[in-house]
Structure formats: C-alpha cells, structure tokens
TrEMBL record:
This is Shikimate dehydrogenase. Pathway: Metabolic intermediate biosynthesis; chorismate biosynthesis; chorismate from D-erythrose 4-phosphate and phosphoenolpyruvate: step 4/7. Residues 6-88 form the Shikimate dehydrogenase substrate binding N-terminal domain. Pfam families: Shikimate_dh_N (PF08501). Gene3D superfamilies: Leucine Dehydrogenase, chain A, domain 1, NAD(P)-binding Rossmann-like Domain. InterPro entries: Aminoacid_DH-like_N_sf (IPR046346), NAD(P)-bd_dom_sf (IPR036291), Shikimate_DH-bd_N (IPR013708), Shikimate_DH_fam (IPR022893).
Amino acid sequence: MIKLGLIGFPLGHSFSKKYYLEKFEKENIENIDYDLYPIENIADFPKLYQEDECFKGFNVTIPHKQAVMTFLDELSEEAEAINAVNCITIERKNGTTILKGYNTDAFGFQNSLEPLLRPHHTKALVLGNGGAAKAVCYVLNKLDISYKIVSRSLNNGDITYDTLDEQLIKEHTLLINCSPLGTFPKIEECPAIPYEFVTDKHLLYDLIYNPEETTFLRKGKERGASTKNGYEMLVLQAEKNWEIWRNNF
C-alpha cells in the first residue's frame, strides 16, 4: 500500500482527501491511500515517513509551507523561487531517504488565471502576504504583470488597505485576494478595499473556494467586474501533485 497525505494544522474540512479518494475510486487506482495528518509542531513531521516506508509523498498546507523546507533535501525551481512548498516526494535509495519539495500552487494559479486575462490587465493588487501570495507574485512576475502587495502593515507589504483610493483601484484592474477573509464559516468578511471604484474592466480573483462566491467576488460582480474563485486552481494543483507523485512511484 502506497501512502500519501496532507500535513498542516488545523486540517478541518480538507479538499485534498475527498478529491484524491474520489479520484482513486473513479479511475480504479488501487493500493494507494490518502489521509490527513494534523501536525501542530513541524518537528513531528519526520516521524511519519521514518516510521512508515509506505509514505511516498505529502501535500503541505498552513502553517508549514515554509517551515517544512528544513527537512527537504532538494527543491524544484519554482519552490526555491517562491520559498514555499505544498508538495513533497519521498524517494528511498540504498537506505537513504530523499525528500524533494515542489510548489504546484503556482501552476494551478497561472493556468486558471491566464484564460481570463485581457490586454488591459497589466497591473495587480495582491491582497494579503502569506504563503499563497508568494506563489501568486511568482506567477505575476512570469506573466510580466506589475503588482503591489496590500497589507494591514507597511512592514508586510507595499501599501496598506487604508491608502487604497480611486486612482489605485482604477490603475490596478487585477485584484487578487490571497487572504483568508471570507472563508466559510465567516462568509460575510471581505478585504477592506473601496469596492465603489471597481468597474467592468476589473478582474477579481479569490483564492478561496468555499463559499463558491465570496463577499469579495459578489461585490466585484455587482460593479460589473469579471470574477473567479479558487476552485479550478485547487483542482489543477491537485492534478499536478498527482503527476509528480506518480512519476516518482
């Protein structure tokens, strides 16, 4: 039996477990299990794969996407550039265990965003500055889209929410929510931006997928903007994870 799993804390309702188990059943993929491993202290991570050689890979989520890198032997190019990992392969050779980290968030985000981009989407505001924002900024750099990171404190971003005005919103027609604001069950929350300046030229992208339409997206849609939630990004990165693991079995 090959084991795969998700580490993070807390893990609550996980998209990953449901997605992979349904995929395995639907595609008749046998002898592979995917489970949740809530680890509060990342120092406990090595016990999992050291004590059970069935483990071939992991997904990594909040709050361990950077801390887990301490335990890795290799990084893919994008994981190194982003400085965050959400996918790990485990290879055992001649008694040596080799862990390699990848970042498939970037792949998922880029491939779900690109079809929606229009020629005027040349500047973005990235709302939030966590691990997900790092993958988003990596992709924006690749696509030659300039951006500013918006945060509650200037220590963590380029500008603060309270400095957003009509001119900034008008200039930056791509608005990307990388913060957890609006995630179920606190669905009434949303980033504190001046939505009255959003127009039909704007594209609002929310990395959140639950609820399907966040308050951030609803407010954008009310102003005529195009909107996209994070579900397709999640599916694309999940499939990329599977491709990486499968090539390593």
